[in-house]
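Checklist before submission:
- one chain only
- standard amino acids only
- sequence pasted in full

Submission:
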Amino acid sequence: MMRQAVGLSLLSVVLLTGCATEIGVRGAFPGPVAAEPIPAPPPPRYEVIPVAPGPAHVWIAGHWVWRPERHEHVWIPGAWRYRG
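Returned file contents:
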């Protein structure tokens, strides 16, 4: 009797594990997404670098960033950052 109960328990665990694995694998990966290529950014803008606010500051140059919601590049101006 005990042996039969253990056998049924083991069988149910094996069957349930197989089902859970199959469901998990199928739903784990989204389908392919058609993405349009990002165009090259415009040339960098010329920036006049102001005087540093202190000796522990470093200049971070401006750069273009792609904004997918606007479908265009947006210029992020340069700035002084504290190097601390």
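Reviewer check: The longest strand covers residues 63-67.
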